[in-house]
Amino acid sequence: MYWLWIAAVISAIIISLIIGIAARNRAYRAGVAAEEARLLRQAPLPSSFLQPEEDRLRKLPPPVARWLKLTGALDQTPFSSVHIRQKGMLRTQPDGRWMPFLADQHSLLAAPAFIWKAKIRAAPGVAIYGRDLYADQHADMLIKLMGILTAAHARGPEVDQGSLVRYLAEIVWYPPAALSPNMTWEALGPDAARASISYGGAAVSGIFYFQESGEPVRFEAQRYMDAGGTFRLEAWSVRMEAYRKFQGILVPSRGEVSWQLETGPFHWLHFEVTDAQFG
To answer: Where are the transmembrane segments (predicted)?
Structure first.
């Protein structure tokens, strides 16, 4: 009888822990959903956004103009946001174990803004939830174990810079943003162009490389990297390897993200876009 009572107490404790974990996980996901809703409310009506002017198009560097024409984005109904679903693998150290992830991202075009939420499978039965937010000129990066225990939370000017660089790299997923008043372009030859974006008091730039047919194949920039609680500028690059059309718009659908460190390349993320919706 005594052991039955002990077993019942242990079972009750376990059930309480499971219920508590589930409740905190739901609270975390509800908070992220609220952030996502606030971000999307900032998007202007699609009909009022980025109507391309022929004069603006003519002034673009030739490889950028070829890319925009190839995407077909300017022939579609104007849109002000993109919703992307991804899958892939990532790791946190150069010799770390690769972990599969699923991610969901919304990005705006009128002003730099995005929210990325991911579920990473760290081990059987163990999930890491990540949320990267950039809105109103500031970034917030949050990582939670099982959606309840904060493993990392980063904010500040270096994180703001890194998120704006990321937004710049990802205009290949929302091509009309290349025509934003926040953007300037500089020709660097027949297959490359420097893109610069100014927003609020921040400004970043990076170089896009293109195939002769117009597809972007690489992006390179200086970006702040979190090195154990301190930040330092490092070379950061995105390689694009495949392309797909979603709603008639051609975008890179598979690639790799790397840090180019003094000790050698740190390839840390492989991504695949499984769906893209423009609205």
So the answer is: 6-23
Buried-exposed string 117-148: b where 16+ CB fall within 10 A, e elsewhere:
bbebeeeeeebbbbbbbbbeeebbbbbbebbe
**Contact at 8 Å (CB) between 166 and 190?**
no
CA distance linking residue 117 with residue 105, whole number of Å? 6
Dihedrals phi, psi of 217, to nearest 5 degrees: -120, -20
Residues with Cβ within 8 Å of residue 12, at least 6 apart in sequence = none
- What's the structural domain count of the chain? 1
Decide if 276 contacts 173 (C-beta within 8 A): yes
DSSP H or E run through 270 = strand 264-278
Q: What is the pLDDT of residues 119-170, one digit of tens each?
A: 999 999 899 999 999 999 999 999 999 888 898 999 999 999 999 999 999 9
The one-character DSSP state at 55 is: H
Count the alpha carbons within 13 Å of 54 in the hemisphere toward its beta carbon. Answer: 0
Write out pLDDT tens, residues 10-68.
444 444 444 556 667 788 888 889 999 999 998 887 655 555 666 677 889 999 999 99
Give this prediction's pTM.
0.90
Residue pair 199/161 in contact by the 8 Å Cβ criterion: no
Is the pLDDT score of 3 beyond 50?
no
What CATH number is associated with residue 224?
Answer: 2.50.20
- DSSP H or E stretch at residue 19: helix 2-41
Question: Can you name the residues that pair with 254 across neighbouring β-strands?
Answer: 242, 272
